[in-house]
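pasting for ref
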Amino acid sequence: MSDTLHELITLLHDKFGIEPATVDPDKPFEDYGLDSLAKAELLFVIEDHFHLEYPEQHTTVATLTALAEVLDRLRTPAAA
């Protein structure tokens, strides 16, 4: 499990009380009871936690795995 994915699971627990042991990162957010409003709240928490602006074009990601991949790309400095 990537560090980013681990951090996202921790954020889910802290914000929504979802137990880390129950998280399958490939399941849709809806399977955890997160509607569009909760997902928006999660994105705000992610922006604060990772100190970045989450791009609007990626707000349709549906799983933690996909979200971690987007965050890893955003956090990796562009090659010179």
